[in-house]
């Protein structure tokens, strides 16, 4: 039995729309930061005595679309290693599931790494990234630590993530504001399909996201927090604009999401360098230097309470336990 640990990542340049639904190829490159606080541990064992795959996530048997995606990754690994053994998978998330905190990113990265190794495969991180992508697009990035770029690519082999900067040797951290950790109503898969099919803003989103790649990468390499934060916040707002333009229109924002976004803008006006990003859920993540954490936390705690704020630092890539 092999156990792997992968950490969640938060995109500063979002993946939002698939140009190939089967291969999970995104329209544009994306860039993320892997976090230290949220992770998934997954153990995999292939066993000839099993009748079928048994998947347990947080002590519950996995069913539905999640199970299909796990099976897809396991099947790819079985094909690659030339065996057809059923797997026993045991996974525990140290992250609130499906609340826009990207639990799928850590889950499928840990699964790909553990299952490949349990099959006796020795794969590069790039190959693991390609495998993880088949479970969840964002998982391709969680194979790596620190700042990561997922190249959109044009086929299975050209769509993979790679490290931009790891370790991250400058002061950047991310404060997670847990507004609602319940399962969201519109999954990222459904949300992406809806905007790509119906939102007139979608083509503009793809164009502006791809144009953001170089500037965001440069901001990271130059360790320029203000530039990185500004670009990341704009990118997130443009992603969410596509949902307002969809038919039927929808949003992941909740009243507290807007309250936090406003507070961050106001803090900025007062000279505190902090910036927001929001994924396919109501929770806001705030990018700032740790030297500003106290100022940011004091203001946010007044809205949501201190217990719903989690300070995260850059985290590592996939490891084996
Ligand atoms: O990997 P998925 O299918 O859960 O999609 C993730 C989409 C966003 O979190 C909204 C953006 C991203 O790049 O992580």
From TrEMBL:
Residues 177-305 form the Mvd1 C-terminal domain. One of its GO terms (cellular component) is cytosol. Gene3D superfamilies: 3.30.230.10, GHMP kinase, C-terminal domain. SUPFAM superfamilies: GHMP Kinase, C-terminal domain, Ribosomal protein S5 domain 2-like. It comes from the Bacteria. It is an enzyme of class 4 (lyase). Its EC number is 4.1.1.33. GO terms for molecular function: ATP binding; diphosphomevalonate decarboxylase activity. One of its GO terms (biological process) is isopentenyl diphosphate biosynthetic process, mevalonate pathway. The keyword Cell membrane does not apply. Residues 6-161 form the Diphosphomevalonate decarboxylase-like N-terminal domain. Keywords: ATP-binding, Lipid biosynthesis, Lipid metabolism, Lyase, Nucleotide-binding. PANTHER family: DIPHOSPHOMEVALONATE DECARBOXYLASE (PTHR10977:SF3). Belongs to the diphosphomevalonate decarboxylase family. This is diphosphomevalonate decarboxylase.
